[in-house]
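name: query_chain
kind: protein
chains: 1
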Amino acid sequence: MLTIRQKGDFSKLTKYLIKAKEVAKFDSVLAKYGQRGIDALSKATPVDTGLTASSWYYEIEKGDKGVSIVFYNSNVNRGICIAVILQYGHGTRNGGWVEGRDYINPALQPIFNEIAEAAWKEVTEL
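structure:
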């Protein structure tokens, strides 16, 4: 005779699956805002050749504490991201300094505000 006994329930599994479903839903929402961020950054980036402006991309990163949109720029020259030196400034070969221009924060702030508004709406409508 074979007897199988089970104690407990599947509440932890159920909770995990519900959370995974919510994260998957949030991914598509973040993708929409990710593209809006790329558009805003591309328009706001100072243009010389246009390479930096056209080199923005984003990734949605999932971690233990949630989901994030991370913006990147792939225009790198001699190991230095050009978008970063445009933002913060840089030294020149002859010892001079080129002042940076804060273009990233003003471009992304409206997007962040939209995300916060949408998240708040989602939370308060539960």
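note: The beta strands are 56-63, 66-73, 76-77, 80-81, 89-91, 97-99.
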